[in-house]
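quick one if you have a minute, typing this from the bus. theres a chain ive been looking at and ive put its sequence and its fold in C-alpha cell form underneath. please have a look and point out which stretches look like helix strand or loop to you. anything you notice is useful, everything is just below.

***
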Amino acid sequence: MKFNIFDYEKHFSKNTIKLAEQLLKSNKLSDVHFSDNGLNKAVIRDSIFRLDVSFMLDPNGVVSYPDCSCPSGFMGNCCHIAALVMFAANEYQSRLESSDQSSGAVNILINSYTETAVSDDPLLTEKTPVRILPEIQFTSPITYSLTIGRDRQYKVKDIFTLYNFFSNEVTHSYGKNFCFEHKLENIDEKSRRLLDLTALICAASNYYYRSLREFKLDEKTAEKFFAIFKNDYVSIDGKKVYVAYEEPPISFTITDAGNSRFSMTCEGKFKPIIKCMHGFFFDEPAMKLYAASPQFTKAVYDLYNECCRTGELFISQNDMPLFYTAVLKRVKQFAEVNGLDELDEFLPPELTPQLYIDLNEDNEIIGRLDFRYGDNVYPSRPIKYDVSNHYSDTVGPLQAYVEPSARQTGSRRKTGGEYAACKHLRRELHQRGACGDTQRVSARRKIYPPEKRFVRADERFDSRA
C-alpha cells in the first residue's frame, strides 16, 4: 500500500481524518522518531492502551508499509496511522521549504503528465412542465438531493417512493397548491435523464441501508450528471449556478524562489471540484461552474489543483528541465504561463525532425530523416519507395507506385499517377516534420531529370546516399 504523504486525504476517510485531528490536538502522539532510512515511528498513549505506529517514507514523499498495533492497523488506514502521517506531512513540508529540493508533488506531477479539453433564463419559468431538480452540496464526496415541483420545489423524501409513484402513475399532493399525476410524459427531458441516472447510482450502491435522500457523485456519475445541465442552471449550496462547458481563464506564474529553486503559483479564483473526462472548476464570485474540455483537463487540472492545495509549488533547478518537458510544455498550450523567460538557461533544446525527399538516378523516390537536438544532428537510414509501373511524361519517363487496379501501361489517362505518388509522399512527410523537396517534386505537371545534389537549409546531401 503506497500513497503520497500530501495526498493522505484520498487514502483516509473523512471520519478517520477527524479522529486523527482530535488525537493531534489532545497531544496523544509521543515518542515521534524520524530516521534517515525513512522509517517513521511514534507511540499513541491513551488512558488504557499504548499503540505503536510506524510507516516508511522515501525521499519523494511516498508512504509505504503503514502499520499500527490496533485491531484495524493491519489495513493501514486507521486513525492512528493517519495522525502520524499528518504530523509527518507538516514536518516534511517545513523541511522542504528550507531546503533546495522540489516540492513533494513534483515527481507525482511529472509521472502523471508523462504517462499518461447561454441565455439568462431562470430554472423555473411560467408555464413550464413539472421538473425534478437537484440540490447539490460541494462536500467530499459531492452529493445531491432531489426536488420536484413547478412554481415551487418540494423535497423528495424517499427516492424509492418516487419511483413507485411513476411506476403506478399515482396522483400525489406535495403541498396545498401542487398535486401531480406521476407520468413520465408530464416531466421534461432533463428530469427523465436525472431520474435514470439516480436509478443507476442507487443500483450501484446499497441505498436500502443508507440515506434515501442524498446521492453521491464519483468521477463516472459526475460526468453524466453535469452533462444533463449543460449550458443551464443548477442549485449548488442553495445558490443558482450556471454550468458552462468552456475553459476557465487560468494562468500560472513562475518566479525565482532562491536556494536554487523556482516557485510556481496559480492565478485564478476557480476551485477545482472534480476531475472526470471534463474537469470542473467553480467560480463562486461569478456563480459559474466551468466544465473544461478533456484536452484542457489532462494538461492543466492536476497542476492547478496542486497549486491551489499547497498555495505554492517549488521546483529545483535540477528538476526544471524534466518538469518543463513533461508538464509545462503541455500546460502552456492551454493556459498562460508567466515567467518562462527566466528558465531559458535551464530548459533542454528542442528535438526537431527534418525530412528530405528526392529522386535518384534510378527514378526512385527517396527520403532521408534527420533529427536535430541543439547543435547536434543525428541522421537515420534513408528510406525508399519501391517502383511498379513506367509511365510517360511530358519531359521523360518516371517510375511511380500506382494501385494495381489502376495499372494501364501506356495509357495517357494515367500520366497523373506519378504526380499523385509524389504529392502523397510529400504530404505524408510534411505531417511528420520539416520537409524539403526539389523543384521537380513540387512541380504540378513537370518532373525534371534527377540531379545529383540539391540544397536545403544550407545543407547538402547526395541523393544516392
About this structure: The chain has eleven helices and 29 strands. Residues 351-462 form one domain. The two ends are 56 Å apart (CA to CA).
